[in-house]
Amino acid sequence: MITFKNVTMQYPTGTVALKDVSLNINEGEFVFIVGSSGSGKSTILKLILKELDATSGSIFVAGKELKKLKHKEIPFFRRNIGFVYQNFRLLKDRTVYENVAFAQRVIEANPKDIRRQVPSMLTLVGLAGKYKNYPKELSGGEQQRVALARALVNNPSIIVADEPTGNLDPQNSWEIMDLLNDINKRGTTVVVVTHNREIVNAMKKRVITIKKGCIVSDIEESGYDDEV
Amino acid sequence: MKFNTIIYSIKQGTKNIGRNKMFSLASIGTMVACLFLFGVFFAVVMNINYMMKEMEGSMCLTVLFDKGTTTERIEEIGNEILVRAEVREVVYISPEEAWESFSSDFFKGHEELISGFEGDNPLQDSDSYKVYVNDVSMQNALAEYISKMEGVRQVNNSESTVKSLISMNSLVTYASAGIIVTLFLVSLFLIINTITIGISVRKEEIAIMKLIGATDFFVRAPFFVEGIIIGFLGAVIPMGVLYVMYNKVVEFVVSSYGTIAGFIKFLPVQDVFVQLLPVALFLGMGVGFVGSMVTVRKHLSI
User: Fold this and answer.
1) Cβ contact A91–B208 (<8 Å)
2) Which member of A147, B72, B173, B277 has the lowest number of beta carbons within 10 Å of its beta carbon?
C-alpha cells in the first residue's frame, strides 16, 4: 500500500530529514512510527500526503508513484487518504456536522450521501448528540473524534495520524486509539506517528523507529524502543 | 463541476462576506470610493467631449470669392472642396441670404429701415461657402488649401479658437486616460491587499481543503463568488449615488449660472450612464475577480 524506495528528503534550508529510507507497508496493516522530535517521522507522513516532494528516491502510495503525479491529479490521489493531526485542524467557524460534511462536499459527493454518511460517522465516533456544537464547545478528545469522523467519511483506504494523542489525556488517548484499531480491523491501513510510549507498548503492533532520518528498527508486534 | 458544487460555492462565497464583515466592508468601501471618483471623472470627460463636439459642429470656414468670379467657377470650387475627405458639409450662401441674415440681425427692432434698401443689395458679390469639417484639427490645413484655389479671395478661419479647441481636446484625453489608469491600479492594489488579509484568516481552511482532496477550482470558486459580489456592490452603490447627484448638479449649474447654460449643454443622465454603468460594473467585478484570483493562487501550491 505504501512503499518508500531509497527516499532522501532535504529541506530547502539544508536540513536532511530522511536519509535513504526504504520501507513497505501492506494493505490492512497498523503501523506505529516512533522517534524523538526532529527525527523525521512527521516528514514521512508529509511525503505520503504529497505535501512535500522527496529530494530523491521513489514513493508509491495506493498504486501511484507520487513524483509522476500531475498537479491536477493530486486532489484525486489524496482522496485515498484520511488524516488526523495533533492539533485537530477543524474549521472553528463551523459546527461538528459541517466539519464532517465539509470533507464530503470537497469531493463533490451527492447531498443525499452526505445526509446519510455524516450522521453515521458521528455515531461511529460517539458524537451523534453534538452535531450542532462548534469545536470550541468540545473537549480535546471530542475534537479529535470529529477529526477522525472527517478523515473516515470519504471511506479512505489509508488513515495517517500525526501525534493524534499529543494533546489528549490518557483516557481520551485510549478512546482514539481504540477507534483507530476498530477502523483498522475493518480493513483500512493505519499509520500513526507518535511519542506515546505507553500506547505503543500496550498495542503490540508493528513499530518502525526513526533516528536522525534513518530507520533503526522495524519490528512486528513490538514496543517502544527504549534507546530512542 | 457538479450543479451542487456551484450552489455550494455561491452559498459559501455569500456566507464568507458575512463571516468577515470588517474585511468585506473595507473592500466594498475601497471599491465604492475608487469607482465613485472614476464615475465623476468619467461623467466630466464625457460632458467635455460632448461640449467640444457641439462646438466643433458649429465651427466652420467662410470662403469668399474674387469679384467677377462666375457662378460656374463658384460651383466648381464648391465641388472641389466637397470631395475632400475631411469636409463634412459645404453650404452655399447667396448674396440675398447673406444680406437677409445680416440685416435682420443689424436692424433688429427697426425692421422698417430695411425697406430703404429695397432692390439694392450692399452685399452684392458677397456670396460665400460655409465649410464644415469632421475634425477641427484639420481645419487650418484645409483653410490653407482653399485659399490657394483660383477665384478664392479670402478664407475666414477662427484660428485661435481652433487651436485652443484642439489643445484642450488632447489635454482632456490624456488627463482622463492617466487618471483612469491610476485609479484602476490603486483600486486593484487595495483590493488585493484587503483580500490578502481576508485570506490569511482562511489559510488553514484552504490547507485543510487541499489535504482532503479539493481541486484548485473547488477552493477558488467561493473566493471568486465573493470577489465578484464585492465588486458588484462596490460598483452599484457609487453608480446609484452618482445618478442622483448628476441630475442635481446639472440642475444647480443650469439654474444658478443661467448665462453659461446658453452655450454649454450637458449630456442627459441616461446618455452618461448607458456608457458609465457597464464600464463601472466591468471594472468592479473584474477587480474583484482578478484580486481573488491573484491572492488565492499563492495558497494553492500545497
Assistant:
1) yes
2) B72
Which of the residue ranges A21-35, A162-176, B288-302 would you say has the lowest mean pLDDT?
Answer: B288-302
Instruction: Give the max Cα distance, chain B.
Output: 102
In this prediction, does ipTM exceed 0.90? no
Interface of B with A in 187-206 (CB under 8 A): 204-205
From the list B243, B234, B224, B232, the residue with the least C-alpha distance to B183 is B234
The separation between CA B216 and the C-alpha centre of its own chain, rounded to angstroms, equals 41
Task: Report the mean per-residue pLDDT for chain B.
Answer: 80
- Between the CA of residue B168 and those of B110, B136, B140, B161, B194, what are the distances in Å? 41, 12, 16, 10, 38
Min distance A202 CA to chain B CA atoms (Å)? 31
> Residue B95 pLDDT more than 70?
yes
> For residue B198, what pLDDT band results from cuts at 50, 70 and 90?
low
- What is the residue extent of each domain of chain B? 3-55+163-300, 60-157
State the cell numbers at B255.
439654474
The pLDDT score that the predictor gives to residue B133 is 81
Q: How far is CA B269 from CA B6, B46, B116, B238, B273, in A?
A: 38, 11, 51, 15, 6
Residue A3 has a pLDDT of: 95
> In B, which residues are within 8 Å of A72 by CB distance?
215-216
Q: Hey, is the C-beta of B77 within 8 angstroms of any chain A C-beta?
A: no
State the Cα–Cα distance between residues A153 and A114, nearest whole angstrom: 9
- Computed over its alpha carbons, how large is the radius of gyration of chain A? 17
Q: Taking CB atoms and an 8 Å limit, are B216 and A108 in contact across chains?
A: no
Cα separation, A164 vs A195, in Å, equals: 10
- Distance separating alpha carbons of residues A180 and A129, to the nearest angstrom: 21
CA-CA distance, B30 to B38, in Å (whole number)? 12
State how far the Cα of B21 lies from the Cα of B24, in Å rounded to an integer: 5
Please tell me if residue A72 touches chain B, with a CB cutoff of 8 Å.
yes
Among the listed residues B29, B3, B8, B1, the one whose alpha carbon sits nearest the alpha carbon of residue B231: B29
Would you call A78 an interface residue with chain B, using a CB distance cutoff of 8 Å? Answer: yes
pLDDT for position B159:
62
Cα separation, B51 vs A146, whole angstroms: 69
Cβ under 8 Å to A: B residues 215-254: 215-216, 218
* Count of other CB atoms within 10 angstroms of residue B72: 8
For residue A154, which residues of chain B lie inside 8 Å, CB to CB? 212-213
| Structural contact between residues A123 and A145, judged by C-beta atoms closer than 8 angstroms | no
Residues contacting B132, CB < 8 A, separation 6+? B57, B59, B60, B87, B88, B89, B90, B91
> Are β-strands A30-34 and A189-194 bridged in parallel, bridged antiparallel, or unpaired?
parallel
